[in-house]
Design a protein that fits this description.
The protein has 148 residues and is mainly alpha-helical. The chain has one domain. It contains 6 helices and 2 strands. It has a two-stranded antiparallel sheet with strand order 1-2.
Length: 148
């Protein structure tokens, strides 16, 4: 709850939505959210303690508490999510340190990659490949959040 106080209620709701949006657009990139992708996202929520960035931990704990049985996808378009991610980028750079902002964005990228890899193909997890649609979504997340 420490970080929540740094933001307006609207800003906090936007920032808190980022992990769910990322799950939604990555898992849904192939038009089908499967059980492996849901499981991967739930694992990220359950392992929030492993994230170094306190802002990310606070958000993931909050989501896990709010959605104990899994994320609820929101009726928001892919394009709107990308616009909102751009807005989150701007908010972060006004409200937290550059290091915290960068850590948050990189952690969101890690979540995107974990979800994408959950349903990727490969023999015994070697040579796993992320489908082209998910790769494209991840590239757009990187651009929207200005991840370097």
């Amino acid at each position: 709850m420490i970080f929540e106080k740094l933001f307006t209620p609207v800003e906090w709701q936007l920032i808190k939505s980022v992990p769910v949006w990322i799950f939604q657009i990555v898992a849904g990139a192939d038009q089908q959210i499967d059980k492996k992708e849901i499981k991967a996202f739930l694992k990220e929520l359950q392992e929030a303690d492993y994230y170094r960035e306190p802002l990310v931990r606070e958000i993931l704990f909050s989501i896990a508490k709010e959605y104990p049985s899994g994320p609820q996808t929101q009726s928001i378009s892919y394009e709107q999510i990308l616009r909102d991610l751009e807005q989150v980028h701007k908010i972060l750079h006004h409200r937290v340190t550059p290091e915290q902002a960068d850590n948050f964005k990189k952690d969101m990228l890690l979540i995107a990659q974990q979800v994408a890899q959950a349903s990727s193909s490969g023999i015994l997890s070697f040579g796993t490949r992320i489908c082209p649609e998910e790769e494209n979504v991840i590239d757009n997340i990187i651009k929207a959040l200005h991840i370097e």
